[in-house]
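User: Predict the complex with zinc ion.
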Amino acid sequence: MNNVRLTWLGHSCFEVLSKDRLLIDPFLDNNPAATVRSTQVEPDFIAVTHGHFDHLGDTVRIARRTGCRVACIHELSQYLRSRNVLTEGMNIGGSITLGDIALTMTDACHSSSIDEAGHSFDGGKAAGFIIRVGDVCIYHAGDTGLFRDMQMIGDLYKPDVAIVPIGGRYTMDAYDAALAVSMLRPKVAIPMHYNTYDRISQDPSIFTSYVKKASGINVIILKVNDSIEL
Ligand code: ZN
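Assistant: Here is the predicted structure with zinc ion placed in the model:
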């Protein structure tokens, strides 16, 4: 037990709580799956996987109110800085330490842009994160298709928890995500990025049965606002 609490706030938004509080992809106010609002979170740090609205979400609003720093890829950090947000720019393969949390940015097979008031800003590249607190390691895949280097992410970081998108259309579906879990070999797999909208509707129990067949790894299907202790 390392006293790390992992909470799903809906879609791809998770909170990692230890001594410090990290919020990942805080899409809350316009998220039909979320009940927590951007005014109700008090993160010490935010990590954003890419610029799309359902991931960047309420980052600017929350970071301005709380003064927290935002870890994200260089291009996205440039945009956020222009919006008076404190940033920790980084890039694929790089690591930083924020309080008692170590973040490593991993590859993701996806696009990124920031669309605002009819303008589109360069979002750099989409990413995932390895999040380490003490000896607990969590992999948040961000939005991604299946890619072979997930095997390497599994070999290198040996995540305890792998959080993977299963909604299809914009990311892996349940079948591909089960293959991803086989490559990552975590102790526990958690599905995300499904059922927020009709376009990514998915029965998560199908993911569980695919994972059971492919690798036998334990799947936890969280309900929104559910937590697990690690
Ligand atoms: Zn996306």
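The domain at 5-223 is CATH 3.60.15.10 (Metallo-beta-lactamase; Chain A).
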